[in-house]
Amino acid sequence: MSSQDIPEENLPAAQDHAHGEVADEQHPFADPGLPPHEHRVQDIDEKAAKRSERAVAFLFTLSMLATVGFIAAFVAIDHDKSVYVFPIGHINALNFALGLTLGVALFCIGAGAVHWARTLMSDVEVADERHPIEASPEVRAKVHADFKQGAKESAIGRRKLIRNTMFGAVALVPLSGVVLLRDLGPLPEDKLRHTLWNKGKLLVNMNTNEPLRPSDVAVGSLTFAKPEGLEEHDEEFQNEIAKAALMIVRIQPDNIKDKRELEWSHEGIVAYSKICTHVGCPISLYEQQTHHVLCPCHQSTFDLSDGARVIFGPAGHALPQLRIGVNDEGYLEALGDFEEPVGPAFWERG
């Protein structure tokens, strides 16, 4: 469309000069200026402004409720539960609740801020000339003045309901991220320091699933044992056996070099953790003549006749020993739990 097709009264030269510059030979493309400002209904009607204020406060309040709902859903909904949502189908109930509540919380904060800016904050367009990057004292003073003016025009001091609910919504929504950290896994507490072994717990052969008697352990043999009551079909079997698995070896008492090892044994039968103290691999190789056990992963070697101390490889400390004895029925039993954590070293090892 050419300029000839535009009505004369709409051309820049024919417009109200109060809102722009006049085109001439030197400046053929004059700045048309800004259109006259049109007031919003909230600018001239306090009742409309109050309605907008309540709408913004409602959105911020809804955000707070959604954040609380996020936390409540995380605590109350079982992670295995599923629900049917049309048209998606069956989905995980916890994921659906977390996504819905967090989405509502974030959306309401954004929608409230936009509605606040569109209806209550000043919408007068201001043209400001560009200035050098280095701020002069006059510019800094102007920025401070503009900031104060903006704060005044936003009515954040006068609209206390909006201000308070906005602060509440913005303060609460980060709690969603804090709660998500809890989903990294169960808290370890002191579980790594304890196993299923305790006083009176029978030593059960891993292969036969029968309690062990001293006569079942021959000199030079290697037997693997688990605590009484731990079955492979148990839900926590893998977690518990990873801490409680035992190696049982019978050594001539005269060949046991470590005094405490001899005291904690029964007729030369010693029980040590099967879990290597390097990276937690199961130890399974035993040399009868030297009483050395070898971890097949990284070749850490332990001397079972000398407190299971490390004689080769990257392991950092000896295997923990379990104190054992015999009950009235003649079965081998534990006389307590390990006195130190089993497996690799970790920061809680005092």
UniProtKB/TrEMBL annotation:
Function: Iron-sulfur subunit of the cytochrome bc1 complex, an essential component of the respiratory electron transport chain required for ATP synthesis. The bc1 complex catalyzes the oxidation of menaquinol and the reduction of cytochrome c in the respiratory chain. The bc1 complex operates through a Q-cycle mechanism that couples electron transfer to generation of the proton gradient that drives ATP synthesis.
Sequence ranges assigned to domain Rieske in this UniProt record: 238-333
Region (Disordered), start-end ranges: 1-38
Segments passing through the bilayer: 56-77, 97-117, 161-181
Protein name: Cytochrome bc1 complex Rieske iron-sulfur subunit
GO cellular component: plasma membrane
Annotated source species: Streptomyces griseoviridis
Keyword hit for Cytoplasm: no
Keyword Transmembrane: yes
Signal peptide: none
Assembly mode: The cytochrome bc1 complex is composed of a cytochrome b (QcrB), the Rieske iron-sulfur protein (QcrA) and a diheme cytochrome c (QcrC) subunit.
Family per record: Belongs to the Rieske iron-sulfur protein family.
Entry GO MF terms: 2 iron, 2 sulfur cluster binding; metal ion binding; monooxygenase activity; oxidoreductase activity, acting on paired donors, with incorporation or reduction of molecular oxygen
Membrane topology term: Multi-pass membrane protein
Localization (cell): Cell membrane
Basic and acidic residues compositional bias, start-end: 16-28
Keywords: 2Fe-2S, Cell membrane, Disulfide bond, Electron transport, Iron, Iron-sulfur, Membrane, Metal-binding, Oxidoreductase, Respiratory chain, Transmembrane, Transmembrane helix, Transport
